[in-house]
Amino acid sequence: MRLSKTLFIVCFLLAFNFSYTQPNQHFNELEIHPINSIAPQSTDFSDLEFLKETLKNNRIVLLGEQSHGEGATFAAKVRIIKYLHDELGYDILSFESGLYDNYKTYQQVNGSNSDPSPIEDSVFKIWSDSKEFKPLLQYIHQQKENGTPLMVTGFDSQSDLIFEEEFLIDFKALLGDNLKLNDKENQILDEVFYGGPEFLLSNEVDSTFFFSTCHKLIKEVDQLIDKKETIEAKVMKQSLIGRVALLQWEMDILNENEVKVQNPRDLQMAKNLIFLSELYPDKKIIGWGASYHFANEVKSYKNTALTKDYILKFDSLQKSEEPFDLDKSMEGAVPMGQLLKDHFGDKLYSIAFSSFEGEFGMLGFNTISLDALEPPQGSIEYELNEQGFEYAFVDYKQLANNQYFYSSALGNLPVYAPWSKVFDGLFFIKTSYTPSFIYKNESAQTIARKASDPVKSQKLKYVINEADNTGIGYANIYVLNTSKGIATNAEGAFSFSTEGLKPQDRIVLSCIGFKNDTISVHELNTTAEFRLKPEPFQLEEVVIRSKPLSAKKIVKLAEKKIEDNYFQGHSQQEVFYRVKKYREDSITFDETASVLVGNRTGYQSSIRPSKKLTGKILQYKNILNQEELKNAWDGVGSLWLVYSHDLILHKNNVLHRPAYYDLDLEGITAYNGERVYKINFKCKKPGSYTTGYGYPSPLAATGTIYIHTKNYAVLKFEILIVRDKYKLKRFPNYELDPYGYSITQTYTEYQGKYFLNYSSELSYSRWNNTKTDTSYRTLEVRELVSTNIDTQPTVELNLPISSIKIRSIKEDPDFWSTHNTKIEDSVTETYKKVGLGDSD
After folding, report:
1. Contact residues for 641 (Cβ-Cβ < 8 A; gap 6+)
2. Where in the chain is the domain with CATH 2.60.40.1120?
3. Residue 130 in contact with residue 72, Cβ under 8 Å?
4. CA 560/CA 538 separation, integer angstroms
5. Which of 63, 80, 73, 95 is nearest to 139 (CA)?
6. Rounded-to-integer distance, Cα 539 and Cα 137, Å
C-alpha cells in the first residue's frame, strides 16, 4: 500500500524527532572522568589516575581517532602515551604504519636529539609532520637515552619509502649465502616490489611465479630462524608476508574483484599486531591508528534518518560529486579491532575519540568546520557538552551491549549504535582543531591575491632558427661562467633580467642541434631576435674499437656515469615554477613561484627522490585571485612531482630500466661545441616500474634521450606517455580518451657538473560525454626552470619540498623585476603537441 505524501512526512518527522531529541537516560549510569588537559607538556597526571583501575587487566590499549585530521586528538594521545609508559608499564608503541619501516628506524634512535628523528621517515606523514606529534618524538628519544625505552613498532602492511628502497636489499643481506635466487626471480621481485602489481594483472604465469618466489623466500628465512632465532629475521619474515597480502589485495582492487571495505588490510594489520605481541610476550602494547580500524562489531549500527541527513551535510561540505552511501560502504566490514577482540578478549581495551565543535582536516588538506555537523541531542557528545566538560573520559564497560545512542566517534558523523560493543571507552574533547605542520610560520603574511603575471611586464626576446625563421624551443640562455640563466618557451620566446650585470658581460645562447652564439649584455638589451645556425646530424666518428657502441650500451654508460657527471654534494637551486590549468582555452588555475630547492645528497637515484629534498618559497603569486588552496600539494605545492619524474633522480624510467625499451641510435648532433647522441626509445612493457606511471598501465611510452658522446651525460629527455580509455564508476557517461603526459627535461653544466635546467610536465585529456556526444579538453602545465645554482649554500633549509606551500611569505614588490622568469607556451600549440589540436 502506498502512503499519502502527508502521512509519509508525518512518519518521517516522528522517526527523525525520536532520533534527534529522545534523551538517553542510561547516560546517567556512566561514570565520567573529567580530564584537566590534553597538552603533551602537562606532567601532572592526577586526572589520569583512574586508568590504573580501568586498565589493570589490559595488555593492549588502542588509541583511535575520528579521522586522520584531528590535531587535538593527536595531542591528547601523546599525553596518554606518556602516562601509560611512565605509570602503567606500557613499553611498546605500535603505529598504523609499516612494520618493517618502524622496526628499522627505531634501531637508529640514539641520544636525545629528535630533530630530525629517524622515526619521521617511518610513521606516516599525516602524523609525523605535525606539531602535535613532535613532543612524542622528543619523548621517545629521551626515554631511550634514559634507559627506559618506549619501543616503536608498526602494525601496517602498507609502508613508505624505507620499505620500497631498502627491504629487498636488507632481506637478501639477512639471508646471505642461504639465499638462492636466479636472475628471473630477482627480476620479478624488483618489478613488483618497486613498481606495484600491475605487471601481474594480465599475466597469470608471472603472477604465479611471483608469489611462488615470495613463498620460497619465506621458507628460506624460516630455515634461518630455526638455526638461530633473531628478532630481525622474524620481523623481516612477517613484513614479507604482509607485503604479499597487500599486493594480493591491490590486485583484487585493480581487477575489480569485490573487496569489503579494507578487510584484507585490516586482517593483515590484526595479524601483525598479534605477531608483535608474541614477539615481545612480556611487553604491554599501545596502538595508534584510526578508530575505524580499532572498532569491534561496527556492523551493529543503525543508519537512521538523522545520520542520512548529516551525510548530506557532510557531502555538501566536502563538495562530493556523489552521495555517500553508509550502508554500502560498511557492508561486510570486519575491522582489525573485531579480530583483535576475538584474540585478546578482555586483555584489550579500545579508546575512541570525539568532539562537539571546532574543525578537522587532514594535514595539508582543506579544513572542515563542525558547525554544520554539531552532534545532536541524544548523543554522548551533546550530553557531555551540556554537562560543561572541556575534556572527559567515559568507560563504556558500565553500559549494556544493547544500549543504542548517537556518537560521532567515526569520521565526525553522528551514528546510532550500541557503542559499548564497538569501543571500550571514549575520550571527549569539546573543541577539535586541525593538526598543523611542524614548520609553519604563524606570523608571516600570505600572498594570494590578484596580481599581474610576473613575466608580462618584461620585454620578450626570441631565439630563432636561422634556416627557417622558426622559434627554437627550450634553448638555454645563461651568463658565461655563472649559473644564472633561463630557457626559451616552445616558440623560442624568453625574458632575461640583466640586473647587476655589466654591459660587457657575456651571454651564451645554446640548444641541442644548433651552433652556440655568445653575445654581450649590451646586445641582449638592445636586440629582440637572436639567430642560431642548425648543426646537421653527423655520422659516428671513426673510433678504433672491436665493436661500435649500441644505443643500449650508451644508455647503460649514461646511468653508470651519473655519479661522475651530476653534482653529488650539498647544493641549492633557485627555480621559477608555474602551474597552470585549462579547460579548453580558458584558464581555471594559475600559480607562479620562485622556490629555493635544497639537495644535501646530490644526484642519487631512488624510488622517491623528492623525500630527500627541502625547499622554501621565495615569492608566490596567485594570478587569478583565487582563494589560496589549503591543500599543501596543489598548485606550486606540487613541485615535488617534478623531481619525482626527474630522469636522473628517479629509478623508474628508460635510463635505469633500458632492458624494457627498444632503443634506436638515430645519429649524432651538436651542443655547446660538443657531440651528442640522439637515441629514440619505445617501452616494451609500460608500467610504474618502467615509466613511473602505474595503474592503469600506459598504452605506450615513447621518446628521445640525448647523451654526450664523451662523458655520457644526459643533456635532454623527452617522453610521451599515452594511457588507455578510462571511465569513472561514479559517472558512467564520461570517458577519458585520450589522456596522458608529455615530459621534457634538459640539464645544464655548471662548474663541471650537471644540474636539472628545465622540466615541463603536461597532463592532457579529453572528456567525452557518451550520452550527449560532447567533449572538452583539459590541460595542466607544470613547468620548472633553473634561474640560479649555489654549490656552497649558506641558507638553512629544513622544510620538506612536499611542504613548501604550508609556510606563508611576505611580498617583495621588486622581486620579479630582478629575477628571471620563463615565458609560458601557447596553449594552442601545447594542445597540438599532445595530439589534441582540434577542438569540439
Report:
1. 610, 761, 782
2. 461-532
3. no
4. 25
5. 80
6. 61
Fold of 461-532: Immunoglobulin-like (2.60.40)
Q: What is the CATH number of domain 5-155+286-432?
A: 3.40.1660.10
In which residue ranges of the chain is CATH 3.40.1660.10 found? 5-155+286-432
Q: Coil, strand or helix: which one is 721?
A: strand
Region of 641 (left: φ > 0; alpha: ψ -120 to 50; beta: rest) is: alpha
pTM: 0.86
Q: What is the dihedral of CA 549, 553, 559, 561, to 10 degrees?
A: -40
C-alpha cell at 338: 573485531
Selection from 320, 285, 153 nearest residue 232 by Cα? 153
Which residue, 268, 298, 57, is CA-closest to 154?
268
Alpha carbon distance 704, 662 (integer Å): 11
List pLDDT tens digits, range 20-69. Answer: 334 455 677 788 999 999 999 998 999 999 999 999 999 999 999 999 99
39-53, 87-101, 313-327, 594-608: segment of lowest average pLDDT: 313-327
Interval 367-376: pLDDT, tens: 889 988 899 9
Retrieve residue 508's grid coordinates: 651564451
Pairing of strands 485-487, 726-728: unpaired
The H-assigned helical ranges of 372-501 are 380-386, 419-422
90-98 vs 284-288, strand pairing mode? parallel
Instruction: Residue 646: name the closest of 567, 573, 755, 751 by CA.
Output: 755
Residue 637, classified by CB atoms within 10 Å of its CB into exposed (0-12), middle (13-18) or buried (19+), is buried
Other beta carbons within 10 angstroms of residue 465's beta carbon come to 19
The three cell numbers of residue 86 are 611512565
Contacts of 482 (CB under 8 A, 6+ apart): none
